[in-house]
């Protein structure tokens, strides 16, 4: 499963022309994580697309939050049918937060994905740009897509990355817990801070199963050891 978004990637799905910024629902999930794509040229404006798949079998996506890096200006957030979009300006060193919330009946159902469009100002000439994101499901599960690739293995919740100039020096990747943080814009509030990726129910179940297996194994070993020790004591007690 690819984790890095390369420049000039062809669109996975061809969609008939429609209203700008509309959520595009696509059956099937080619990559089960939030990703960002765009045909970008350093120093030029660009249109970015955030693809958000609903990967849980029993819940739909009702909220999406994205942090745009501070060196990139958001010039327009096109209206999305059935969703309320909001641009929240943060501190100068934290960038802008984009927040989309689904209206009743417009959430992204399981096994489908939505696409959100954002227009940005001149793209800086650098290797890549990071977009920490949060995805909220109808059952309360929050997936924080904020883990950078630090080696050959792909992280469980990869950070959405847009490659701008492959010839530039790549950044030194370090583990981070950055995610959309709380911000206030009038009476509305952005999602609460998330410092680490939240496992999906299936991942949590697998982790719990592994832990249970370890506990059972330790318990069985202890029981066998105890039986052996007791047998030795009995043998000694009946010896002449």
UniProtKB/TrEMBL annotation:
Residues 187-207 have a biased composition (Low complexity). InterPro entries: YcnI-copper_dom, YcnI-like_sf. Pfam families: DUF1775. Residues 145-207 are annotated as: Disordered. The keyword Transmembrane helix applies. Keywords: Membrane, Transmembrane, Transmembrane helix. The chain crosses the membrane at residues 208-230. Residues 33-164 form the YncI copper-binding domain. The keyword Membrane applies. This is YncI copper-binding domain-containing protein. It comes from Streptomyces toyocaensis.
């Amino acid at each position: 499963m690819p984790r890095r978004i390369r420049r000039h990637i062809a669109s996975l799905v061809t969609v008939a022309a429609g209203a700008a910024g509309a959520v595009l629902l696509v059956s099937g999930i080619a990559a089960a994580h939030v990703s960002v794509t765009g045909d970008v040229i350093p120093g030029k404006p660009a249109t970015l697309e955030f693809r958000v798949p609903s990967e849980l079998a029993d819940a739909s996506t009702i909220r999406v939050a994205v942090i745009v890096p501070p060196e990139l200006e958001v010039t327009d957030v096109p209206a999305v049918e059935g969703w309320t979009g909001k641009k929240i300006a943060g501190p100068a060193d934290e960038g802008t937060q984009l927040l989309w919330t689904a209206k009743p009946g417009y959430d992204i159902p399981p096994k489908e994905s939505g696409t959100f469009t954002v227009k940005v100002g001149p793209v800086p000439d650098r290797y890549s740009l990071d977009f920490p994101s949060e995805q909220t499901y109808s059952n309360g599960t929050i997936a924080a897509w904020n883990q950078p690739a630090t080696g050959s293995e792909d992280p469980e919740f990869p950070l959405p990355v847009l490659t701008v100039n492959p010839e530039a020096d790549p950044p030194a990747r370090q583990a981070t817990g950055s995610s959309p943080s709380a911000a206030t814009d009038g009476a509305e509030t952005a999602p609460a801070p998330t410092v680490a990726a939240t496992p999906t129910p299936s991942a949590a179940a697998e982790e719990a199963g592994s832990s249970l297996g370890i506990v059972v194994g330790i318990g069985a070993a202890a029981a066998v050891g105890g039986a052996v020790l007791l047998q030795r004591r009995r043998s000694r007690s009946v010896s002449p």
